[in-house]
Design a protein that fits this description.
Elements (H helix, E strand, L loop, with lengths): L3 H15 L7 H13 L4 H9 L10 H15 L7 H13 L4 H10 L10 H12 L1
Helix pairs in contact: 1-2, 1-4, 4-5, 4-7, 5-6, 6-7
């Protein structure tokens, strides 16, 4: 289980990804707030993170890193407009988390083949499992 500092770090990272144009769209805010609630982070703490990001803490658990990468992919695809710049950013986020270069590329290449570009969690886990073993 991840601790509070790791949870805040995850949220801060997601917020930073969403703030690519110095603002967070309403759909992104609601998505991120939902994740905050799942992580048992209050709305007040979540809103504080928007203005005061914290330093990234690398997760020890490989499965937690995969879940975080999946959140980033979902966040990126909320507005259905994915730019090359976003793909580079998400790729770099994945590498910084210590995920496999090949797995990241595979997920990003295959996401277009799914409805709304939403890679099912089981499929995503299988991609990372192959590279992890």
């Amino acid at each position: 289980m991840i601790n509070r500092v790791e949870k805040l770090s995850l949220l801060s990272e997601l917020i930073a990804f969403a703030q690519r144009d110095d603002s967070i769209k309403s759909i992104e805010y609601n998505f991120l707030l939902g994740i905050a609630k799942q992580l048992e982070i209050s709305e007040a703490d979540f809103n504080y993170l928007i203005e005061h990001p914290i330093t990234y803490v690398n997760l020890k658990s490989h499965s937690e890193r995969i879940v975080q990468f999946h959140r980033l992919v979902l966040l990126m695809n909320l507005d259905h407009k994915v730019s090359n710049k976003q793909l580079v950013r998400i790729h770099n986020f994945g590498l910084r988390m210590g995920l496999s270069h090949e797995s990241i590329n595979r997920v990003l290449d295959l996401m277009d083949s799914f409805p709304n570009k939403i890679v099912p969690p089981d499929f995503l886990i299988d991609i990372f499992k192959v590279q992890y073993n």
